[in-house]
Design brief:
By secondary structure, this protein is of the alpha+beta class. It has 15 helices and 16 strands. α1 runs antiparallel to α5 and α5 packs parallel to α9. It is elongated, with a radius of gyration of 28 Å. This is Histidine--tRNA ligase.
Length: 414
């Protein structure tokens, strides 16, 4: 029988990987809290309609990528492919409109059935923030600034570029959509199969196409900025001015779009050239129409999401965790005493490692393997005198110390 393997597109987070993940999550949560974002979690599965309503029945995520099943009660359930819809559902389910605006930070696993590639798995992990209930362009500025600050804390910002665009309001978007349909209809025979399918139901998604034939047509396609009304122009101008005022650079990308109708105004991505074809590190925008599409009251929202796997590949190496103290008892009586001493040290905040057997050589080898900072050695002679030997494993220096008060000696500084 072949050795058991993880399901394709999934990945075990062993301690080193998990340390890098925690490095991303902890730093992102810490920075976002400075902006007023509080950590929250939603279930990893929702009723399927939560995502069908928000992502659209004909989107690639819904038709090809969602993990959907019928549970024992006959309900259709989907593992969350993204978390904005879940956060918005939680906002409505818990009656939080009276507390708006609210700021949330999240981090956790998402699920999509797609071809695994660098930085993209079938079970992947994201962090994100959502600012719900604020229609002003200053909210867009804050959300982008928070994202930039997190990337800076992780040592990534300098290797990314912020791409920025506006999707306008509903009126501007409708006019632009009609212009795209007219333009691409004149070139329908030259479009890829996917783009022909998107032509009438989601023409903005054609601008995302990676097909070479489509890319040539996109060069001469209408540009969104030509169809923006006065209100949309002023909203975008305020966002740009705000980013200029706080020193966040950006590049205008008129082809940066969001295909779903509930997106409006600001769309943005932090991109990098260090991850091959997967250039987006953090992506977001304004989604004022989402709540209403889900059956709730019209409620503005803006946010972003970022893949933890990609961030952990780019982030500066996290500092190593606390190094343990290795306990090395020699003899049965010393072993019993060390068990009690180990608990005393742990309660004092000292990380302890103690092998469950072996001679002095094997135990010291174990101490090196776990990168212990010191070894505390206890034999029959030390036990009789109430002392221990403490060996600094970096310098080799060894001293004798009373067993009483050992916790205070070894405890990390507060």
């Amino acid at each position: 029988m072949a050795a058991l393997q993880p399901v394709r597109g999934t990945h075990d987070l062993l301690p080193e990987d998990h340390r890098r993940h925690r490095h991303v999550i902890d730093n992102a949560a810490g920075v976002s809290s400075l902006y007023g974002y509080e950590f929250m979690s939603t279930p990893i599965f929702e009723f399927t309609q939560v995502f069908k309503r928000t992502l659209g029945d004909t989107s690639d995520v819904v038709t090809k990528e969602m993990y959907t099943f019928t549970d024992k009660g006959g309900d259709e359930i989907t593992l969350r492919p993204e978390n904005t819809a879940g956060v918005c559902r939680a906002f409505m389910s818990n009656g939080l409109a009276q507390h708006a605006p609210v700021r949330y930070f999240y981090g956790g696993p998402m699920f999509r059935y797609e071809r695994p590639q660098k930085g993209r798995l079938r079970q992947f992990h994201q962090i994100g923030i959502e600012l719900i209930g604020a229609p002003q362009p200053q909210a867009d500025i804050e959300v982008i600034a928070c994202g930039a600050a997190i990337l800076d804390r992780l040592g990534i910002l300098g290797r990314t570029e912020l791409e920025l665009n506006t999707l306008g309001d509903t009126a501007s978007r409708t006019e632009y959509r009609n212009a795209l349909v007219e333009y691409f209809s004149d070139h329908k025979d030259s479009l890829s199969e996917d783009s022909r399918d998107r032509l009438n139901r989601n023409p903005l998604r054609i601008l995302d196409s990676k097909d070479e034939g489509d890319r040539k047509l996109i060069v001469d396609a209408p540009v969104f900025s030509d169809y923006l009304n006065q209100e949309s122009q002023e909203f975008f101008a305020t966002v740009r001015q705000g980013l200029d005022d706080i020193g966040i650079g950006y590049r205008l990308n008129p082809r940066l779009v969001r295909g779903l109708d509930y997106y409006c105004h600001t769309a943005f991505e932090f991109t990098t050239t260090e991850l091959g074809s997967q250039s987006a590190v953090m992506a977001g925008g304004r989604y004022d129409g989402l709540m209403e599409m889900m059956g709730g009251q019209p409620t503005p929202g803006v946010g972003w999401a970022a893949g933890i796997e990609r961030l952990s590949m780019l982030a500066t190496e996290p500092e190593g965790g606390a190094r343990p103290v290795a306990l090395v008892p020699m003899g049965e009586a010393a072993e019993r005493q060390m068990l009690k001493l180990a608990e005393t040290l742990r309660h004092a905040g000292v990380q302890v490692d103690m092998a469950f057997g072996g001679n002095m050589k094997k135990r010291m080898k174990r101490a090196d393997k776990v990168n212990a900072s010191q070894a505390v050695i206890l034999g029959d002679d030390e036990l009789a005198r109430g002392v221990v030997q403490i060996k600094d494993l970096a310098t080799g220096e060894q001293i004798e110390a009373p067993m009483d008060g050992l916790a205070a000696r070894l405890a990390p500084p507060m």
